[in-house]
Give the backbone structure.
Amino acid sequence: MKKRERIILIGAAIIIALVAILVIAKSKIKIYTVSNSNFRVSYDSTWRVKDKKEQLYLVHKKTKSVLRIQCKILEDNYINTSLSELIDDIVFSIEEQNKDYVLINREGTNEEYSYLYENNDKQVLVRIMKKDNKVIIAYYEAESKYYDIVLDSVEIILDNLVILFQ
C-alpha cells in the first residue's frame, strides 16, 4: 500500500506543478509604451488605454480604477517659476473643479507634489510634476477597497514617466 500511495502522491504533485506552470505562463504581463508630444510612459497589460492623445487615460482591467495623465504647457513668464510657487494655484483649481474631494494627506518637494483625497467610497491621488515649461498632472482614482492594491502599479507607471522636450 505504501508504494501505491507514494506513486499517487508523486503523480498528484506532478499534476499540480504542471498546472502551476501553465497558469504562470498564461498570466505573463506585457509592457506597453505610449507617447505623445509631451511625455512617454510605460504601463503593463493590466491596464487598458481609453485615450492617448494629449491626455493619457488608462483604466485598470480588473478594478476599473482610472489613471489620467495630463500635460499643461506653461506660458513663457512661468517657465523659470518653481513648482512650489505654482502649486497653490494648481491645487486651488483642482479643488474648485472637484468640490466633493476631502484632503487626507499631502507631501511634496520642489520637484513633485502628491495630494490624497477621499470622495465617498473612492480615493484620489493627484501627483503634480514640473519640468521646464511643462506641468504634468496625474490623477489616480479607485474605489477605497482597491486603492492600495493598484497603487504599486500606478507608482511604477508614474516613476517611469518621461517628460519630452519639443
